[in-house]
Amino acid sequence: MIRNYILLWFFAILLADCSNSYLRESTNVSNVKKNYDKILVVAHTKDKVARIRAEGLVVNELGLRGVNAASSVDVIKTENFSKELSEDEINTLISKLIEAGFSGVLITNVINTEQYKDVIPGGSNVEYHPPQYGRFGQYYSYYPATSWEPDRIETAVDYTVESCFYDITSAKQDNLQWVGRFKLKNPTDIKEAIAQYSRELANALTEQSINP
To answer: Residue 42 has what pLDDT?
Structure first.
């Protein structure tokens, strides 16, 4: 009996962890898992502070798993990524990165923000007060106090984040190795949300695409 209870408790924790995960889907496009000398982490954002924080957390999580990575803030000085690069500029950038010891690049974009509304149903709240049992009249006329609450509408925002990992040393034109999509459902603490995303991203990459 106790053993069955422990097993049920264990599986309940596993299901709770899965339901709270940001990762929605991921694919090892290349069907190859291998070592990389050094990985450049790029977070596409116009806010430099957000870029530094996001890239730093991913670099740290990859490092904890034995993967050598660096933030693009120290390598690519562009702050807002607003300029579309030509083919020649891309090839020049790749050459410079390879010369600097990089063999992979991880790029993250927020591809969608979706505002939605949740209706929180109202209802009745019943407050029971202990009656006086000693007298017939007091108990006979006793009734609970009932209050009603209206429905509430709460506005929230979901963020869909996509991360793509490339092998820049590959001679093939299509050198995408892995892609993952995450959904951050109305994060109340954006710092903790980015931290959780970073952990899940690093876990998925080292499980599916990168050998530590």
So the answer is: 92
